[in-house]
Amino acid sequence: MKATRLLGIGRIETVNVAIPDPAPGEVLVQVAAAGICGTDRHLLHGEFPSTPPVTLGHEFSGIVVALGAGVSGIGIGARVTCDPNIACGTCDQCLAGRVNLCRNLSAVGIHRDGGFAEYCAFPAHRAVLLPDVMDLIHGAFCEPLACCIHGIDIGAPRAGEKVAVVGGGVIGMLALQLARNAGAQTMLITRQTAKRTLATSLGATLTAATPAEARNHWPQGADLVVECAGVVETVEACPGLARSGGRIVVLGVLSAGQKVQIEPFDLLFREVQMLFSFVNPFTQARAVQMIASGAVDVAALISRRLTMAEAPAAIANPPLPGEIKALVMPGQPV
After folding, report:
1. Pick from 167, 231, 253: nearest CA to 204
2. High-pLDDT (> 90) share of the chain, %
3. Segments in 182-231 forming alpha helices (H)
4. Residue 270's domain spans which residues?
5. Is the pLDDT of residue 208 over 80?
6. Cα 332–302–137 angle (5° rounding)?
7. CA within 20 to 30 Å of 228's CA: 5, 72, 145, 155, which one?
8. CA 187, CA 218: separation in Å to the nearest integer?
9. CB 318 within 8 A of CB 19
């Protein structure tokens, strides 16, 4: 089968590998679609810990085609998405219910082979069933939406509050819709005109090209600022966008080792909370239901569909202008 593998820092190729046999407790899934994530680019450049050589891809969906020994509760032909984060269940963080902070956390597509392949084997308990009414391709959005749900849970927007979302990528567009669903007034901040137009079609109350323009709209600031770009400049802009007594949630992933300049006195004097959100503890099933019900629109976020042969270049290069989400489609001819 074809698989797009991280061979080492700066080295990614689509190669031929054997179809995996599901180990005891695992399912083998024929992959329908896998989303390219900013984390994949961080992995390529050694900016996020991984264990190459490894097949990348942690946002994917597909159909179960084989079962390992001992698997029950899921059958061949089941339509599933993968919740890629595997917690040990025994460390102090797991026992406290903080599985996303597991001391032994590993992830499909980062520490073990993932979904940029025609087939992927992973633990059956990380397979989340998709309802028949849901487009199988849309299952590839469940993992990023689950991460956004966790971040919005932390930020806890209330009806009528002002929520500023910084960054117009897939995380920003998903977070925007979640804040809208909470009844908040929403503003998306991004330089790209096409993304501001899309945000308006998804229900944004306002859009702005820059933080300065955003402050013109809301001079007192936002009750909640959600950073979704994972860029030093945008993280540093967040305190200036928050009102006194407001909250900031950083959802974007910066490269390991990057530093930002924040004025603690400003946050202290205005009692602004700066919070952080990591992956998706117990939120993947909620993501499935939100997409299946139409509460969150993901079809509008698909910018392009790629073959396996096109995947390495797409990961190695920045997203195209206006691009929200590129999907790798292993079933398309290479």
Report:
1. 167
2. 97
3. 193-201, 211-217
4. 147-276
5. yes
6. 55
7. 5
8. 10
9. no
- The pair of three-digit structure tokens given for residue 219, joined into one six-digit string: 């001079």
Quote the number of domains for the chain: 2
Q: What is the pLDDT of residue 333?
A: 56
Report CA dihedral (247, 252, 256, 257) to the nearest 10 degrees.
-50
Q: Are strands 273-276 and 242-250 parallel, antiparallel or unpaired?
A: parallel
pTM of the model: 0.97
Judge whether 205 lies within some domain.
yes
- Per-residue pLDDT tens over the stretch 116-162: 999 999 999 999 999 999 999 999 999 999 999 999 999 999 999 99
Count of CB atoms within 10 A of residue 265's CB?
A: 8
Domain of 31: which CATH number? 3.90.180.10
Domain shared by 112 and 155, yes or no: no
Instruction: Report which DSSP code applies to 76.
Output: T
Tokens of 158: 């209330």
As a whole number of angstroms, the distance between CA 9 and CA 31 comes to: 25
- Kindly report, residue by residue over 218-248, the tens digit of the pLDDT: 999 999 999 999 999 999 999 999 999 999 9
The backbone region for 203, taken as left when phi is positive above 0, alpha when psi lies in -120 to 50, beta otherwise, is left
Two tokens, residue 277: 């959100």
Six-digit token pair at 164? 């500023």
43-82: b (≥16 Cβ within 10 Å) or e: bbeebbebebebbbbbbbbbbbebbbeebeebeeebbbbb
User: Looking at the domain assignment, is residue 142 inside a domain?
Assistant: no
